[in-house]
Amino acid sequence: MSWIHTTAAEQAAALAAGEVTSVELTQAHLDQIAATNGELNSFLHVDADGALAQAAASDARRAAGAPLHELDGVPIAIKDVLATEGLPTTAGSKILEGWIPPYDGTVTAKIKAAGLPILGKTNMDEFAMGSANENSAYGPVKNPWDHTRIPGGSGGGSAAAVSAFQAPLAIGSDTGGSIRQPGAMTGTVGVKPTYGSVSRYGVIALANSLDQLGPVTRTVLDSALLQELIGGHDPLDSTSVATAVTGLADAARQGAAGDLAGVRIGIVKELQGDAWSAPVVERFDESIEILKGLGAEVVEVSLPSFVHAMAAYYLILPAECSSNLAKFDAMRYGLRVTPEGDPSAEDVMKASRDAGFGNEVKRRILIGTYALSSGYYDAYYGQAQKIRTLIIEDFKKAFEQVDVLVSPTAPTTAWALGEKADDPLANYLQDLATIPANLAGVPGISIPSGVSSADGLPTGIQFLAPVLEDARLYRVGAALEAALTKQWGAAIAAPAYAKEA
Amino acid sequence: MTQTIVPFEKALAAYDPAMGLEVHVELNTNSKMFCGCPTEFGAEPNTQVCPTCLGLPGAMPVVNGKAVESAIRIGLALNCEIAEWCRFARKNYFYPDMPKNFQTSQYDEPIAFDGWMDVEVEGETFRVEIERAHMEEDTGKSTHVGGATGRIHGAEYSLVDYNRAGIPLIEIVTRPILGAGEKAPAVARAYVAQLRDLIVALGVSDARMDQGSIRADVNLSLAPKGSDRLGTRSETKNVNSLRSVERAVRFEIGRHAGILDAGGSVVQETRHFHEDTGETTSGREKSDAEDYRYFPEPDLVPVAPSREWVEELRRTLPENPTARKARLQAEYGFTDLEMRDVWAAGALPLIEATVAEGVAPQAARKWWVAELLRRANEAGVELAEVGVTPAQVAAVQALIDAKTINDKLARQVFDGLIAGEGTPEEVIEKRGLALVSDDGPLIAAIDDALASQPDLVEKIKGGNMGAIGAIMGAVMKATRGQADAGRARELILEKLELS
């Protein structure tokens, strides 16, 4: 077995025990990327030299006996939505082609400070708009489980990279499910932390009030370790919460022991029904039985406002993004297209935006501009904010009855590339279960719940907890993960990548 | 279309003006509104910038607490309510030197609202109602190169300096000011002047209109006399001096009247004021329907100043400058005219400090306004920067009282002080300015003067005491101004046996 098939926690332990060097680990992952990225397209930019230099520096620190972060030397991939000084950052868009940020986002800075070699930047739907990673200006990502399938979106690159053993750890961003839904599609663990508990400074904003960075890993413990690394108050992010979210790795280790006695779990009534495919429900029901077997008390709870969440989301999100994207005017950075003749500045902006923004981006800019325009604000944006308040209240009431909520992460398994490419609504519906957490700011985790009996592709189960109670997700998630792994005999993994070639 | 400007008096015989003033105040915080960049005026272009104020992808704003404090203090000084909870909003529009293509501002939730300021014009008091004072950020600054006008049209290229982008601004908006009639231009000027005085007293801004740290937008409309309806308004942007505020109102009244008299309708638009001609020209058309697509800024948490903090700020407000002026004028016994000159010269704090050193108010006023102001004007500096301190003025006055020098010599002492020749005593020593009170040289000079002007001696003896002045003049000339005038007069009278 190669080092790439070990978890981040195992790699960290091996580094600490002197069984491997960071350079060896990093090189192993770079080799895997080199061998597989041509097919998967999960990385937009690979920084082999930079990663190896950081790995060598980590090994030197360790040799010198310096105090090290637990994950020092374990390589990581970063979604292309987060600013990385000196590395191209495009948010999957042509309009930022070639832009190299002159600064690091806070999470990038924390990763560098902790000594994790950065392998590169992962592919994503343009400006994080999409559920299939088919909206990337740099081509779709393929699902490691089946190359004819989508990997989920918008963090398809990060999910595929972790699923295909290109990286043990990756950073994703979750605005309406973009960490959790691709997690479900690729058999990886994805976490959307409590809004504000991980700094957004340096995140190219899709919808600022919904966006959240989070971990993408293969195990619950690895996500816990990564969230502890990237979280914490940031004076550069006004929405950053003052209260630190801690005890996550401890909760994961405690959960893995398998005792959920006294834990109350609520199945969300509104996240069931015809939209949910039978194979997904089958795996979900199986997980529920396991949770009961571990001692959890499972009840059904109703959050009636959830039926309006999708509508509210698709007004708030485009409104915010229409404003965020106005800065891309081709004047100061990124793409500039100059039409023939004697064009005015306005002509240059029009031509650049036309060439630089994809269809989905243009669609949402138009919707958002309309939703905010005078005379429509109250009817659309204002109403959506009221729904948001109702959803927050529904969550509060539900969490008076139960400790965590549970649902399938996505209604179906990964679909075929191109299958829904021309149907935005069909794509939007994929985020049915994940969106409410973003509207309310509560944390959520998706863990693999097995594979579909119909197509053999992974399915995911999602847990949601109250604001700042992220530790509950790790405890429950790790307990289920341990039980499922025991049942399967090993962690599930993309078959073509699980063994050495 | 030719423009008819109706004479001011004629315009006001037919129409009632309504004014609204929007004054932007650039705060003198050390850092910008939403980032830590410095705010120094006049720095090399684009040296005071960071990802946030450049609007780079991924960068985020954080509110400057000092700017919030300044906003609250301005609000309190304008008798406003202070919001218990308010938010920033995005004002979405395109502007070439605005990095994000939206401006972070306050929309329907200003930090301060519902205030007032009493403005005095020629003894009459107008209450100007303040609708709101809100926080926002400034934009960058464009320089258009190659054209004849300095405007973007016709320019070969434009340079953008983002040093100013993100500097905190407070925008103070009045409700329509009605009923000022022919005093409208003076009321507008007095309002802006009083507001500036308030800003200076609060110490929240450099308050330099010439550097744009205070700038006024003048909204004006006319309605037929007796009508209770407001007319269509024009908005003259970025007026940069008190005099221009007054002139802009006056010009717009005449221009609107010209349009209305001809049966036309005023176009709602922004206008530019031209200092050289005193006229305004059309900017861009602006309708009420202009759509800024405001929505709450999702990257900023709401501002919720605690009531304790607000009350603490209220307790520490400086004395209102209008009240302070009235109090000091009464204490010092200055006439209205004297007070106006003192205020216009920015001399009140200097006089106050000089009086505190024990100098009589009138003497302090004389030195600062009648004497040192001329030198400040010649040097092109503010009075406070002329190079003489209140303590030095007090020292000079003490030397006069001790008859070491007289008023005339004091002027030369001030020259020496400004030239950096040391203390007043050192200047007197170096320049040989001490009064001659020794009788010997005085008697010699008096004898010479009397002997050379026998006709004057006759006049004085005939009771024309005014003629003594001419003898005194000759004596002063002979002693190069260093004669003790009192002693010389006594000696002249003794000589003529009149004492």
From TrEMBL, chain A:
<dbReference type="InterPro" id="IPR023631">
    <property type="entry name" value="Amidase_dom"/>
</dbReference>
<comment type="function">
    <text>Allows the formation of correctly charged Gln-tRNA(Gln) through the transamidation of misacylated Glu-tRNA(Gln) in organisms which lack glutaminyl-tRNA synthetase. The reaction takes place in the presence of glutamine and ATP through an activated gamma-phospho-Glu-tRNA(Gln).</text>
</comment>
<dbReference type="InterPro" id="IPR036928">
    <property type="entry name" value="AS_sf"/>
</dbReference>
<comment type="subunit">
    <text>Heterotrimer of A, B and C subunits.</text>
</comment>
<keyword id="KW-0067">ATP-binding</keyword>
<dbReference type="InterPro" id="IPR020556">
    <property type="entry name" value="Amidase_CS"/>
</dbReference>
<keyword id="KW-0547">Nucleotide-binding</keyword>
<feature type="domain" description="Amidase">
    <location>
        <begin position="24"/>
        <end position="473"/>
    </location>
</feature>
<feature type="active site" description="Charge relay system">
    <location>
        <position position="154"/>
    </location>
</feature>
<comment type="similarity">
    <text>Belongs to the amidase family. GatA subfamily.</text>
</comment>
<dbReference type="Pfam" id="PF01425">
    <property type="entry name" value="Amidase"/>
</dbReference>
<dbReference type="InterPro" id="IPR004412">
    <property type="entry name" value="GatA"/>
</dbReference>
<keyword id="KW-0436">Ligase</keyword>
<feature type="active site" description="Charge relay system">
    <location>
        <position position="79"/>
    </location>
</feature>
<protein>
    <recommendedName>
        <fullName>Glutamyl-tRNA(Gln) amidotransferase subunit A</fullName>
        <ecNumber>6.3.5.7</ecNumber>
    </recommendedName>
</protein>
<feature type="active site" description="Acyl-ester intermediate">
    <location>
        <position position="178"/>
    </location>
</feature>
<keyword id="KW-0648">Protein biosynthesis</keyword>
<dbReference type="InterPro" id="IPR000120">
    <property type="entry name" value="Amidase"/>
</dbReference>
UniProtKB/TrEMBL annotation, chain B:
<dbReference type="Pfam" id="PF02934">
    <property type="entry name" value="GatB_N"/>
</dbReference>
<keyword id="KW-0436">Ligase</keyword>
<dbReference type="InterPro" id="IPR014746">
    <property type="entry name" value="Gln_synth/guanido_kin_cat_dom"/>
</dbReference>
<feature type="domain" description="Asn/Gln amidotransferase">
    <location>
        <begin position="349"/>
        <end position="496"/>
    </location>
</feature>
<dbReference type="InterPro" id="IPR018027">
    <property type="entry name" value="Asn/Gln_amidotransferase"/>
</dbReference>
<dbReference type="InterPro" id="IPR017959">
    <property type="entry name" value="Asn/Gln-tRNA_amidoTrfase_suB/E"/>
</dbReference>
<dbReference type="InterPro" id="IPR017958">
    <property type="entry name" value="Gln-tRNA_amidoTrfase_suB_CS"/>
</dbReference>
<dbReference type="InterPro" id="IPR023168">
    <property type="entry name" value="GatB_Yqey_C_2"/>
</dbReference>
<comment type="similarity">
    <text>Belongs to the GatB/GatE family. GatB subfamily.</text>
</comment>
<dbReference type="InterPro" id="IPR006075">
    <property type="entry name" value="Asn/Gln-tRNA_Trfase_suB/E_cat"/>
</dbReference>
<dbReference type="InterPro" id="IPR003789">
    <property type="entry name" value="Asn/Gln_tRNA_amidoTrase-B-like"/>
</dbReference>
<dbReference type="Pfam" id="PF02637">
    <property type="entry name" value="GatB_Yqey"/>
</dbReference>
<keyword id="KW-0648">Protein biosynthesis</keyword>
<dbReference type="InterPro" id="IPR004413">
    <property type="entry name" value="GatB"/>
</dbReference>
<comment type="function">
    <text>Allows the formation of correctly charged Asn-tRNA(Asn) or Gln-tRNA(Gln) through the transamidation of misacylated Asp-tRNA(Asn) or Glu-tRNA(Gln) in organisms which lack either or both of asparaginyl-tRNA or glutaminyl-tRNA synthetases. The reaction takes place in the presence of glutamine and ATP through an activated phospho-Asp-tRNA(Asn) or phospho-Glu-tRNA(Gln).</text>
</comment>
<comment type="subunit">
    <text>Heterotrimer of A, B and C subunits.</text>
</comment>
<keyword id="KW-0547">Nucleotide-binding</keyword>
<keyword id="KW-0067">ATP-binding</keyword>
<protein>
    <recommendedName>
        <fullName>Aspartyl/glutamyl-tRNA(Asn/Gln) amidotransferase subunit B</fullName>
        <ecNumber>6.3.5.-</ecNumber>
    </recommendedName>
</protein>
